[in-house]
Design a protein that fits this description.
Blueprint: H1 4-57, E1 71-76, E2 85-99, E3 107-112, E4 118-124, E5 127-133, E6 146-152, E7 157-172, E8 175-185, E9 188-191, E10 194-203, E11 206-212, E12 215-221, E13 224-230, E14 234-242, E15 245-249, E16 256-268, E17 278-293, H2 311-331, H3 337-347
Parallel strand pairs: 2-5, 2-6, 2-7, 7-8, 7-9, 8-10, 9-11, 10-12, 11-13, 12-14, 13-15, 14-17, 15-17, 16-17
Antiparallel strand pairs: 1-3, 3-6, 4-5
Helix pairs in contact: 1-2, 2-3
Length: 361
């Protein structure tokens, strides 16, 4: 029988680690935003001084006007002769990586609002590295770094690594023996990937749809959806510190399920078969862990819900701040794990986890 005190200590430690990770990401974002704001202020001041000097030399000239334009950089994709490993890095923004259709040219393109992004390509032996960065500009608020597109020629890689500092990653129709997707804070979406997949996000949502191969996904704070189209022998792992973990399996798949939800509920629509060649390990520190069969392959995947904006986005941020406050109270020992679960469930508009009746005395 599990010791309830040690279980509570483990859950409290998981909550503390999730809060520390969220605090670290917020501090990094604030520091980077302050640095960029200071850089932009210096640039505005220099531009103002230049305009004043020009007007002083030509007092009768009209006031110059400025327009917001989008700067773009685009280059053809380099040859892949002898390349077996591909690495793609983007500092911030949205990064889309896909395989080119027969009528599309492979290329690397990036746009930004202030200045053209820099695209750097390095090759070392069998490894090709692509770096995309914005030399200056806002990374936060309404301007989110570069919007980059990497369209690959049809190829199968031994290793494929895609990383984004802050922002979104969207990977579609990629094949490799090993695929790694990572983002410090943001959302990661993978559609139709084939290979041994590993996805990690410090804070954000992970959506893996119609995947073929083994997979592992980890998010400190955020929901994870792992939709498996073709099941292979091996271990499938999903870990969420704070959020909902969901695994969808092909109809009739025989698997061994090891599910755990510290503060929340576990919903299993799949029978667990001990000793099965495929093992599903799903954990949610605070939230829900769900394993069930997916819809038939003929049905299209559900559309991505639009990101809330305006009042809805503000309400979501308030709820996230309140959930972090609940975690702080739990770590400080001012509330019990059961009370924390009830509070978070109430914030999300869900019923609290079931409680076992105390034994009669």
């Amino acid at each position: 029988m599990t010791d309830p005190i040690s279980e509570h200590q483990r859950l409290r430690e998981e909550a503390r680690r999730a809060r520390q990770e969220a605090d670290r990401l917020r501090q990094e974002a604030r520091a980077e935003a302050r640095r960029l704001e200071e850089e932009a202020r210096r640039q505005r001041e220099a531009a103002r001084r230049q305009r004043e000097a020009a007007r002083a030399r030509r007092p009768h000239d009209p006031e110059p006007t400025t327009t917001a334009e989008t700067a773009r950089a685009e280059i053809p994709f380099p040859p892949l002769d002898g390349v077996h490993n591909l690495e793609i890095d983007n500092t911030a923004g949205k990064l889309t990586v896909c395989t080119a259709a027969p009528d599309e040219p492979p290329l690397i393109a990036a746009t930004a609002s202030k200045s053209a992004p820099e695209i750097q390509i390095d090759r070392a032996g069998e490894t090709l590295r692509i770096h995309i960065r914005v030399p200056r500009g806002w990374l936060f608020r309404r301007r989110q770094g570069a919007t980059a597109l990497v369209r690959l020629p049809p190829a199968e890689f031994r290793s494929l690594r895609i990383a984004n500092g802050y922002g979104e990653i969207e990977a579609t129709a990629l094949t490799a023996e090993n695929i790694r997707l990572s983002s410090g804070a943001g959302a990661v979406t993978g559609i139709g990937l084939r290979g041994d997949l590993e996805v990690s996000v410090g804070a954000g949502k992970i959506s893996i749809l119609a995947h073929e191969g083994t997979a592992a996904a980890h998010s400190g704070t955020g929901d994870i959806t792992l939709d498996i189209a073709t099941l292979q022998p091996g271990i499938y792992r999903v870990d969420v510190g704070l959020g909902r973990a969901e695994v969808r399996l092909p109809p009739g798949a025989v698997v061994e399920v090891r599910a755990n939800s510290g503060l929340g509920k576990t919903a299993l629509g799949v029978a667990s078969t001990p000793g099965a060649p495929a093992v599903i390990k799903i954990n949610s520190g605070i939230g829900e862990a769900s394993v069930h069969y997916r819809q038939p392959s003929s049905a299209p995947p559900p559309p991505r819900p639009p990101r809330p904006s305006g009042p809805a986005r503000a309400a979501e941020r308030r709820r996230e701040a309140e959930e972090l406050r609940v975690l702080q109270l739990l770590e400080q020992g001012r509330i019990t794990p059961e009370e924390a679960a009830d509070l978070i469930a109430a914030l999300r508009g869900m019923p609290g986890p079931p409680r076992d009746e105390p034994p009669a005395r």
